[in-house]
């Protein structure tokens, strides 16, 4: 088996001109850096999609990374909130989100004569990700998958390359904090962002605040459970200030994508750690 990084570089060379959907996460950052290193900023356009579901600090970090790495970077607004199918928040919400992303990136790619590439890795293929189907149907490419990169491989390669994003916690869109069936609304997204921003100011970098109307369910890695309990007063004050009446702590810990369990029969739900 060959070197996955060399394989990724070869895939990018064959594409020649790319528009990277750049969210600032570990995967898209790694893809953006490698593409820029291989093809140069004249053939790599990194674009961040800005919408109410993107936390402000994530957008700011995209801008910072672009400056640090010399990326050709821009941002575009997406209008998934205008789509009733997206706001309904059923199991296909991510499909409509990626469909809106492709609507926004399509004109950029067409102007550049480029292929849209997403930072999807091999591990992502096993989860409920209808957005991948939407992107693929619109002609997007997944170079990390083509090169065989798992999430762990992305992080390991990023660390070897000295990229500060190598250990960046996963940060899915704010709408992912809402259980399926809870309508996506601007006010709700702002509540979630306010709660998570306040908790990050307490030093909790990896977290989710799941939204259940007036109840917030906090998820942090198991190692941070004791920190939340120790700083209970500050945590409770932060969540109340964001607009929630009740505060709960999930003793199962942080598990990305766990709301997808609601889409599967009980027998298929992933075992708790």
Helix-strand blueprint:
Elements: H1 4-15, E1 18-21, H2 26-39, E2 44-50, H3 56-69, E3 72-77, H4 84-88, H5 93-112, E4 115-117, H6 130-137, H7 143-146, H8 151-160, H9 186-201, E5 208-212, E6 215-219, H10 225-230, H11 232-241, E7 246-249
Parallel strand pairs: 1-2, 1-4, 2-3, 6-7
Antiparallel strand pairs: 5-6
Description:
The chain is globular. The chain has helices at 4-15, 26-39, 56-69, 84-88, 93-112, 130-137, 143-146, 151-160, 186-201, 225-230, 232-241, and strands at residues 18-21, 44-50, 72-77, 115-117, 208-212, 215-219, 246-249. Strand 5 (208-212) and strand 6 form a beta hairpin. The strands form two sheets. It has a four-stranded parallel β-sheet, with helices on both faces. Strands 5-6-7 form a three-stranded mixed β-sheet, with helices on one face. The longest helix has 20 residues, at 93-112. Helices cover 44% and strands 12% of the residues. 39% of the residues are buried. Helix 1 crosses helix 2 and helix 9 (186-201) runs antiparallel to helix 11. It has eleven helices and seven strands. The chain is an alpha/beta fold and 273 residues long.
